[in-house]
């Protein structure tokens, strides 16, 4: 009996070397050590936990620790990740965000449920909630001034090119109109403090406005996220008619390059350093008094090295008023920005983030944004 168990396990391990099986079927993480013996897919440990949430569809075992029958191994051999992908991912819309192991658990959970439980990608009709070009519903929105979450009606209209919300359920005029061409959405469960939390940003008078929303139903929140991506995709297809889909997809939504606390001083470098929450969003470095503020206290444009932007470890000599010891100097064509980090690791990570941006050549449209920053009052 023991020899049969070992034999089955060895056969199972060999299956991992077949094309497609060496990465998690759902998030792409390398070297999966679990498998669903009802779906025939190899998955990582994190995704295996999510498969347990749909036990009526998927039953998982450890490849290394659990006993496997010959029948189960034969089924895994007959299916495998590539065959399952062909079966369950037949028509995934181009704009639909397919999560990786770096994404939050909500996105991964809903991706798994969409594939295997709801079978959304074998029938276009099942994609109606995010593919229709119009979506409306109620989300809990954080109040700008009091921080309370209140139910607000949201409408996304691809035809009008806007996302808008209303302060009262029977209101005729929206409280805010967000143009799709500047809208971004990113899940922020840790920052906002609830699993289904989405941070939506848009430009208002060329300044970034933050809106924080959530819904009790994880599917509803992910549907909103993908509906925003769909609207952005179709806007970009019209705006850039010759562009390849592969070039447009990274522009649909974006996560922030880095966020966290640093201390900063003012333009004269004589003011005391103050602790602020910083967000690096593409080339905009924004700072807030509180991470959930609606508006930034200030925004700095970070250009490319060919335009005289550089980042240096440490502070210029004779600078005073800082509490944290690990300094960063960002040099722009007009001035130097000085920051300090609490620990050396934070300093290194921020410098790496800044260099990622500075080492990237500026796009033509980014010169217009830089010019705005230089001339704004």
UniProtKB/TrEMBL annotation:
SMART domains: ArfGap, PH
Record's GO cellular component terms: cytoplasm; plasma membrane
Keyword tags: Cytoplasm, GTPase activation, Metal-binding, Repeat, Zinc, Zinc-finger
Pfam families per UniProt: ArfGap, PH
Subcellular localization: Cytoplasm
Residue ranges annotated for the Arf-GAP domain, each copy included: 9-129
Domain of life from the UniProt record: Eukaryota
Main localization of the protein described in the UniProt heading: cytoplasm
GO molecular function terms listed in the Swiss-Prot or TrEMBL record: GTPase activator activity; phosphatidylinositol bisphosphate binding; phosphatidylinositol-3,4,5-trisphosphate binding; zinc ion binding
Listed SUPFAM superfamilies: ArfGap/RecO-like zinc finger, PH domain-like
Domain PH, residue spans: 132-233, 255-359
UniProt-listed PANTHER family: ARF-GAP WITH DUAL PH DOMAIN-CONTAINING PROTEIN 1 (PTHR46021:SF5), ARF-GAP WITH DUAL PH DOMAIN-CONTAINING PROTEIN 1-LIKE PROTEIN (PTHR46021)
Protein name, per record: Arf-GAP with dual PH domain-containing protein 1-like
Natural source organism: Scomber scombrus (Atlantic mackerel)
Highest classification ranks of the organism: Eukaryota, Metazoa, Chordata, Craniata, Vertebrata
């Amino acid at each position: 009996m023991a020899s049969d168990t070992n034999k089955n396990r060895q056969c199972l391990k060999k299956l991992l070397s077949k094309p497609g099986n060496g990465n998690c079927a759902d998030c792409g993480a390398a070297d999966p050590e679990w498998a669903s013996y009802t779906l025939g897919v190899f998955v990582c440990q994190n995704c295996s936990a999510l498969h347990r949430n749909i036990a009526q569809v998927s039953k998982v075992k450890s490849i290394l620790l659990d006993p496997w029958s010959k029948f189960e191994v034969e089924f895994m051999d007959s299916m495998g990740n590539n065959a399952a992908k062909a079966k369950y991912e037949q028509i995934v819309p181009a704009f639909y965000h397919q999560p990786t192991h770096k994404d939050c658990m909500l996105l991964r959970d809903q991706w798994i449920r969409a594939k295997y439980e709801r079978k959304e990608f074998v029938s276009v009709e099942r994609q109606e909630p995010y593919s229709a070009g119009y979506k409306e519903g109620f989300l809990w929105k954080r109040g700008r001034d009091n921080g309370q979450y209140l139910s607000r009606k949201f409408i996304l209209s691809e035809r009008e090119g806007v996302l808008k919300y209303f302060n009262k359920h029977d209101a005729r005029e929206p409280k805010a109109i967000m143009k799709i061409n500047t809208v971004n959405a990113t899940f922020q469960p840790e920052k906002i403090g609830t699993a289904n939390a989405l941070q939506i940003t848009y430009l208002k008078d060329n300044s970034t406005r933050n809106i924080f929303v959530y819904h009790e139903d994880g599917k509803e929140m992910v549907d909103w996220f993908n509906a925003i991506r769909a609207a952005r995709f179709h806007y970009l297809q019209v705006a850039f008619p010759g562009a390849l889909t592969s070039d447009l997809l990274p522009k649909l939504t974006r996560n922030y390059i880095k966020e966290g606390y640093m201390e900063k001083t003012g333009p004269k470098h004589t003011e005391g350093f103050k602790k602020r929450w910083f967000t690096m969003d593409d080339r905009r470095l924004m700072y807030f008094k509180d991470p959930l503020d609606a508006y930034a206290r200030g925004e700095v444009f970070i250009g490319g090295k060919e335009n005289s932007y550089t980042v240096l470890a440490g502070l210029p000599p004779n600078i005073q008023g800082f509490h944290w010891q690990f300094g960063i100097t960002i040099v722009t064509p007009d001035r130097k920005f000085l920051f300090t980090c609490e620990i050396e690791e934070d300093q290194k990570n921020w410098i790496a983030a800044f260099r990622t941006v500075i080492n990237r050549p500026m796009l033509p449209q980014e010169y217009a944004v830089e010019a705005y920053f230089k001339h704004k009052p």
